[in-house]
Amino acid sequence: MFRRIKILTLLQLSDRIKLKKGGSIKSILARAGIITLSLVLITAICSALIYLLCDLMSIPKTNSLITFVIFFLQIMSVIACTAGLLKTLYLGKDNAILLSYPAHHVEVFLSKILVFYIYEFIKGVFLILPLLLGFGIIYKMISIVYILMVLLMIFILPLFPVLIGAFLTMPVLFITRVINKI
Questions:
Q1: How far is 136 from 49, CA to CA, in rounded Å?
Q2: One digit per residue, pLDDT tens: the chain, 182 residues?
Q3: Crossing angle (nearest 10°) for helices 2-16 and 105-139
Q4: For residue 126, what are the contacts with CB-CB under 8 A and spacing of at least 6?
Q5: Residue 104 CA, distance from chain mean position
Q6: Are 95 and 181 in contact, with CB atoms under 8 Å apart?
């Protein structure tokens, strides 16, 4: 079962993301350097924006600000995941192909959800990680424990929008079909 889910997930990811097996060490190091540089740059921009918002607009530097930003990003992710999962799970053109493979329907469904989790994880690495590191820099909380907690959050936070979006797709599909009939 897990092997088939892995194959289905990699198959769907390979359609949208260029997955290269191998490659020269130079190209791998160059790509890792570009990703690291972009994360550092995004973190610096997030730190500057947080500093400007807090100091110039007199927004208090409290934990409520971090909570509000994470809550807002999670709500936006739930909306995006619900729309994307609705399109992918029930209205996708690749469903006929994937369901014809020797796999159970549940495995296809789980692989599609896993693909969405991977997309949300990548988005979290490039959005939430720099944002939380920026908060840590501004609040002067950067430590090994803080960085480990941020890394843990990067793995946990994408779960909520994907799972909530998966549960909301059925009622949204029903409502859109009822509205379209009217």
A1: 13
A2: 888 888 888 878 877 666 566 667 777 778 778 888 888 888 888 778 877 777 777 777 677 778 888 898 899 999 998 988 888 877 777 777 777 788 788 888 888 899 889 988 988 888 888 888 888 887 888 889 988 999 999 999 999 999 999 899 888 888 888 888 88
A3: 70
A4: 38, 39, 42
A5: 26
A6: no
Measured CA to CA, the distance from residue 94 to residue 88 in angstroms comes to: 8
The Cα–Cα gap between 85 and 91 comes to 9
Task: Answer for the pair 40, 48: CB distance below 8 angstroms, yes or no.
Answer: no
Number of DSSP helices (H) and strands (E) in the chain, helices first: 7, 0
| Angstrom distance (rounded) from CA 125 to CA 144 | 18
Instruction: Phi first, then psi: give them for residue 59, nearest 5 degrees.
Output: -80, 125
